């Protein structure tokens, strides 16, 4: 251990996405290759001597306790745990969550010593993994609110690869078998109220960790929500969601030293007639078992919606992935103006 192939794969995966900025400490990690990377893992991160590093991935992450703060992390999967090596800006950005992060090392701040925070989720504590629509993200759930993390990969390939690696590592875990099911009597079998709602597809791994995938009803719920936002102008039967993708909306910050741009996470939904941008809650749904009340905000909140017929042109950037797209719409104040003129002019 480790094999040449694994070393090469981990080295290839150790690249920060170009559009995201990270702290100096994480840039150092991203500069490590091959043996140096494995030695760094064993010397600074691994909790037991005999665990093996199996997979590395760079991803934005969200924590259940801090649902509004998306932070860049280097995600390391070993045979014992999942490690999230976090950007230190996260700890400073969220001062009111001081009980969540122990800040004992504040004396290091003025030195040239760069500190990163590492969040550890042991595989033995893992209960379920919820995969988001079109594999754009996934949520890992442990036994408490502190142990719920969403990885916003924004990439179905990265999601799929991580899930495959996680399943392989979980297969190595020796867990006590589930107790034998108790025979149900007549009343408990038929007395439970059927909600009528189809449950999501569940795959229960041999390690007893649930892998939960979205079903067709989730797309139906989304189509209904989109139709609602369109003020009922569209027949729900003819409404097709053509694309669901996690994106960043670029907001140019003028007046700053280098005319910088900030990236706002958004969900883009394209139908046959409209283009929508939503703020989506990626961490709170479906509700964890210990949740006492529903989340403070809805899963989807509409930010902007435009008709495709008002689309004037699409400008494409020349850079490689991730691609920048600019949608230019005709600036018509009253959206129904054209429609009404046509009706008045051509018919009763």
From TrEMBL:
The cross-references to InterPro entries, in alphabetical order and at most eight, read:
PH_domain-containing_M2 (IPR053015), PH_NISCH_C (IPR057714), PH_PLEKHM2 (IPR057288)
Nischarin C-terminal PH domain span: 241-347
- Mind telling me which residue stretches traverse the membrane in this protein? none
Q: Name one GO cellular component term.
A: endosome membrane
A single Gene Ontology biological process assigned to it is: regulation of protein localization
Which keywords appear in this protein's UniProt record, sorted alphabetically? Answer: Cytoplasm
Domain PLEKHM2 PH: from-to ranges: 114-178
Which is one GO molecular function term here?
kinesin binding
Q: Domain of life here?
A: Eukaryota
Subcellular location per the Swiss-Prot or TrEMBL entry: Cytoplasm
Protein name listed in UniProt: NISCH protein
Q: Name the source organism.
A: Cepphus grylle (Black guillemot)
């Amino acid at each position: 251990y480790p094999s040449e192939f694994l070393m090469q794969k981990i080295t290839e995966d150790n690249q920060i996405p170009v559009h995201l900025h990270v702290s100096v400490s994480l840039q150092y990690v991203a500069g490590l290759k091959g043996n140096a990377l494995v030695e760094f893992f064993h010397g600074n991160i691994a909790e037991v001597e005999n665990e093996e590093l199996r997979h590395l991935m760079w991803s934005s992450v969200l924590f259940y306790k801090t649902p509004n703060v998306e932070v860049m992390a280097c995600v390391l999967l070993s045979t014992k745990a999942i490690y999230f090596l976090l950007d230190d800006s996260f700890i400073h950005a969220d001062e009111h969550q001081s009980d969540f992060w122990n800040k004992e090392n504040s004396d290091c701040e003025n030195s040239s010593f760069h500190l990163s925070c590492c969040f550890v989720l042991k595989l033995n504590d893992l209960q379920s993994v919820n995969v988001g629509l079109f594999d754009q993200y996934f949520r890992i759930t442990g036994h408490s609110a502190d142990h719920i993390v969403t990885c916003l990969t924004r990439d179905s390939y990265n999601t799929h690869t991580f899930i495959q690696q996680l399943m392989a590592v979980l297969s190595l875990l020796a867990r006590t078998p589930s107790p034998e099911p108790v025979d149900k009597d007549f009343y408990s079998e038929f007395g439970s109220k059927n909600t009528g709602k189809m449950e999501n597809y569940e795959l229960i791994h041999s390690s007893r960790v649930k892998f939960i995938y979205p079903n067709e009803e989730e797309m139906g719920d989304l189509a209904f929500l989109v139709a609602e936002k369109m003020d009922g102008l569209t027949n729900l039967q003819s409404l097709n969601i053509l694309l669901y993708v996690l994106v960043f909306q670029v907001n140019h910050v003028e007046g700053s030293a280098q005319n910088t741009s900030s990236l706002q996470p958004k969900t883009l939904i394209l139908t046959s007639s409209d283009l929508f941008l939503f703020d989506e809650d990626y961490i709170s749904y479906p509700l964890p078992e210990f949740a006492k009340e529903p989340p403070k905000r809805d899963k989807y909140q509409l930010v902007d919606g435009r008709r495709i017929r008002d689309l004037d042109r699409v400008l494409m950037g020349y850079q490689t992935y991730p691609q920048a797209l600019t949608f230019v719409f005709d600036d018509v104040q009253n959206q129904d103006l054209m429609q009404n003129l046509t009706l008045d002019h051509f018919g009763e």
